[in-house]
Specification:
Elements lengths: L1 E2 L10 H12 L2 E2 L1 E2 L2 E7 L3 E9 L1 E2 L9 E9 L12
Antiparallel strand pairs: 1-2, 3-6, 4-5, 5-7
Length: 86
């Protein structure tokens, strides 16, 4: 769910005025954003690649349909437990 509290218009461009009107009329909208995620790497370091698309419940809502991102994931290894003598 996406909800705008304060919508302000700061441009005189026609395309931005149309987008402002759509956002102002639909301050709450719902999104469905499926994504394909893959990770490649080693035991404690992974490279993550993700590609997704965004579907809005208001088709005229101004937004990007596709998104891509890349990231590094570091896993902190657990502490080594010292063996105790019995």
């Amino acid at each position: 769910m996406l909800h705008y509290l304060n919508v302000e218009h700061g441009s005189n461009l026609t395309n931005e005025s149309i987008a402002f009107d759509v956002v102002n009329a639909n301050r709450t909208t719902f999104l469905f954003e499926p994504a394909l995620t893959t990770r490649l790497g080693w035991k404690y370091v992974h490279l993550q690649l993700q590609v997704g698309c965004s579907f809005n419940s208001i088709p005229a809502f101004p937004q990007e349909m596709m998104n891509e991102n890349i990231g590094l994931i570091f896993t902190i290894p657990p502490p080594k437990i010292l063996a105790t003598k019995k």
